Amino acid sequence: MDDLLDVSRITSGKVELKREPVELAEIVAKAIELASPLLEQRRHELTVTVPHHGLATFGDLTRLAQVVSNLLANAAKYTEPGGRVTIAAERVAESIEVRVRDTGIGIAPEMLPKVFDLFAQETQALSRSQGGLGLGLAIVRSLVGLHGGTVSARSEGLGRGTEFTIRLPPIDLAMSAAAAVTVPAPGLALRTGNGGSQVLVVDDNQDAAEMLAEVLMDWGYTVRVAHDGPTALRLVAEFTPEIALLDIGLPVMDGYELARLLKENPSFQRTHLVALTGYGQETDRQRSAAAGFDAHLVKPIDMTTLQTMMSGWSQRVAPSFSG
Question: Which of 119, 173, 285, 305, by CA, is between 20 and 30 Å from 275?
């Protein structure tokens, strides 16, 4: 029931993240505490290679510990008693990487693209599992996505173990104190100071909106945030965004109605509208297109896809200068 409620909250955009600077070692320690009863019950050997300092991110300690704990529990369930589970972390390029590897039953190649889907369980895994609905990995992907990260799975095949890799954005703890207390209020302009394209973010989930705004600012955009349609309409009376990211499940007026109102205004004919929603069926995409949206992204948002798409639009609308 807890997993089902979690999935419901995540897909409806109602997860509230209590984000703060946190060291990965603290996240892993809490995750091990949560998963240790199952690891001990199945007599697994756990090896941890995580530095105590130097791998910090800006996130919700409890939720990130839940992510790592779910991966550890998954490794414990699908590894024969007496197996080995390892967890390691390091800085790789512009990400913090956390890897959870086991010596378990592995994943067939055709299942790898599906392991993070809701209710996905392989037949062989079902015969050896300890119950569950196949929600744990879907929750992992969703929570990691809410933190601006990604998660992937790798296996060399059945009987050859599995490795899950989480990638999270790092922060410099020396600079994190200011970031931790900078909380945008509804309608507050968030400036990058570098003249980036203007972007409007509208989402009633304040944590999700704030995190998305921070990511966009890191990419060089100037961002304004609203948590409902009327506030968004007041904001666009003062500025014209090149791109607007609109949550569909808004109070007062939903994202479809807000998109129609924007598109009816000649000032916003060139504004690119992106629908953010937990639903991705063809009928949902057709409805967003009919409302005037240029793109339809399913939560948790694939940040690489979003960045590539926005970069292409910004390059086309950016002014050119000649000497």
Answer: 119
Whether 126 and 196 share a structural domain: no
The residue to which tokens 């995580």 are assigned: 50
What is the Cα–Cα distance from 92 to 155, expressed in whole angstroms? 21
Mean pLDDT, rounded, of the chain: 80
pLDDT, tens only, 262-302: 998 888 989 999 999 888 889 989 999 999 999 999 887 88
> Given a cut of 60, is residue 179 above it in pLDDT?
no
- pTM, entire model: 0.52
Q: Say yes or no to pLDDT of 175 above 60.
A: no
Please state, in angstroms and rounded to a whole number, the distance separating the CA atoms of residues 307 and 199. Answer: 13
Which CATH number goes with the domain that contains 264? Answer: 3.40.50.2300
Same domain for 106 and 163: yes
Q: Give whole-number Cα distances, 117 to 53, 112, 114, 120, 293, in Å.
A: 33, 10, 5, 5, 26
Residues 47 and 89 sit within 8 Å (Cβ to Cβ): no
Q: What is the pLDDT of residues 38-68, one digit of tens each?
A: 998 999 999 999 988 889 998 899 999 999 9
Answer yes or no: do 25 and 111 share one domain.
yes
Report d(CA 61, CA 103) in Å as an integer. 28
